[in-house]
Amino acid sequence: MTVPAPGVRLPAIEGWFSDTALLGTRCGACGSYFFPPERTFCRNPACGSADLEETELSRTGKIWSFSINHYDAPAPFTGKAPYTVVAVELATEQIVVLGQLASGIDPATLKIGDEVEIAIEPLADGADEVVWKWKTT
Amino acid sequence: MENDVAVLGVGMHAWGKWGQPFVEYGVAAARSALADAGLTWRDIGFIAGGETIRNGYAGYVAGATFAQALGWTGVPVATCYAACAAGATAIDIARSRILAGLCDVALVVGADTTPKGFLAPTWGDNPSDPDWRRFRLLGATNPTYLALYARRRMELCGATEEDFALVKVKNSKHGLANPNARYKKEYTVEEVLESPMVSDPLRLLQICATSDGGAAVVLSSMDFARSHGVPEPVRVSAVSTITPTFPNTVIEMPNFSTDSAATVAPPDLPFRDAIAAAAYEQAGLGPEDLSVAEVYDLSSALELDWYENIGLCKAGEAEKLIRDGDTTIGGRIPVNPSGGLACFGEAVPAQAIAQVCELVWQLRGQASGRQVESARVGLSINQGLFGHGSSVIVTR
């Protein structure tokens, strides 16, 4: 097992996000975006191209909806309730992407339509692994 | 209609948390449906089983498991899994066999034994499973997604927590007289709104439980029904098992995102509307023809979405229907006279079959204590994880 150097953050999943942005793919033929990154064939049934390029997705978007969870989800979730899941509309890509709400933000202050920005944070308190989350701007 | 098949028998094992092997519920439901049809297991020419994924290998091959328990007869078998839509898919396979002339009579069975609490990933520590990932990375339980829809509805349509509570109140009243319902307690709006918040804005009494139960139907060709002395049976006039059309712009369990609409315009009908539209088209009927509907109230808020998806009202008008009592038994178009998932909880592979059982009892006038008057056309609808449409129209 590889032990990471101190300060190096392990992504909770490989290839879905960088230090600053979500990573998706874009079809070179029809322009459709995919997240999680689709790496084989474009899923537009009128296209089907294999020409998929990795691309950083918009770092900001608008809240489509959100859910404030008051009970712990079952394993393999490692966080603790309450925690909030936010659905965010990205304008350029025209997709809605889920993510947890970043730490330190009171979900009672959220409104549909509010602008949010990506943050890379520990999966749960004290976790070595990091994941993308959404924070209000 | 030339593509109709007859429903000769329906049967259920009561929903509950009985803790017995799922096979027992399935066999009890099957025997009950066979008795209702006036047939024996040896008359059956095909069996379709809804797969259960939480009951070991026997559940993966549920069709054969039921056949073995009923006693091997050499009958052809199929087992299918389509999450919440498994029952409708099994019905569709049986219907297709009959319409193709490959058998005269088919038995469809679904049953489940479910663990307590949130439905969780089934296949262990498997990071390649999208279902594992949504729990690991997001903690996105099923109620999480249901709450996203509910809050969206509050924002766009002016729905209130009271509206959602009214759905639970209605269904709890409907289910009181249903011998197969698990929960037989009438709730008030206050009681619903005092129940613990689970996934804000949804409370415990607005989210369906997971249950044990079994349901079965016996289907036959119209010719067989006539020769069996049933000239005017309840018929299955449509089964819709469609998938979404790209781009699906609604965030669905267990996905992390929607499809992108950046370069391809979304379809005219969103997925849930399209499921119903395909069923109506097959049956040559429309929402105005419905007498009764069984919709999948995974949450009480979702029931309101379904009113619009199946065309009972325009988008944004479902709150008026529930407030005016239109969907209560005795109202313009009763919805979930069985009590719905609110009174049953979900037994996944049995649930879509149970919806059809209720509609058949309604159309035969046998829904004692919860009868919708002069019911002639019934529609069931739900949606299975990963994009399985499920809608059945029965007519008389």
Mind explaining what this structure looks like?
- The complex is a heterodimer of chains A (137) and B (396).
- In chain A, 0% of the residues lie in helices and 40% in strands.
- Chain A is mainly beta.
- Chain A has a domain at 58-137: OB fold (Dihydrolipoamide Acetyltransferase, E2P) (Beta Barrel).
- A five-stranded mixed barrel of chain A has the order 5-6-7-9-8. In chain A, strands 3-2-4 form a three-stranded antiparallel β-sheet, with no helix packed on it.
- With 396 residues, chain B is an alpha/beta fold.
- Classes of the chains: A mainly beta (137), B alpha/beta (396).
- Chain A binds chain B through residues 12-13, 30-36, 43-46, 64-79, 83, 85, 87, 92-100, 107, 112, 123, 131, and chain B through 117-118, 120-121, 125, 127, 132-141, 143-145, 147-149, 151-152, 155, 196-200, 246-247, 249, 251, 255-264.
- Strand 5 (60-69) of chain A pairs antiparallel with strand 5 of chain B, so a sheet runs across the interface.
Q: What proportion of the residues of chain B form beta strands (DSSP E)?
A: 15-25%
Count the DSSP helices of chain A. 0
By DSSP, the count of extended strands of chain B is: 11
Biggest beta-sheet profile of chain B: 9 strands, mixed
Q: Average pLDDT across residues of chain A?
A: 94
Largest interface by Cβ-Cβ < 8 Å: A-B, 45 and 44 residues
Return residue spans of chain A where pLDDT drops below 50 for at least 5 consecutive residues.
Answer: none
Give the class-level CATH name of the domain at 58-137 in chain A. Mainly Beta
Strand share of the residues of chain A? Answer: 35-45%
CATH topology of the largest domain in chain B: Peroxisomal Thiolase, Chain A, domain 1
**How many strands appear in the DSSP assignment of chain A?**
9
Overall shape of chain A: it is globular
Strand order of the largest sheet of chain B: 3-2-4-7-1-8-11-10-9
**Shape label of chain B:** globular
The quaternary organization reads as heterodimer
Gap between N and C termini of chain A: 38 Å
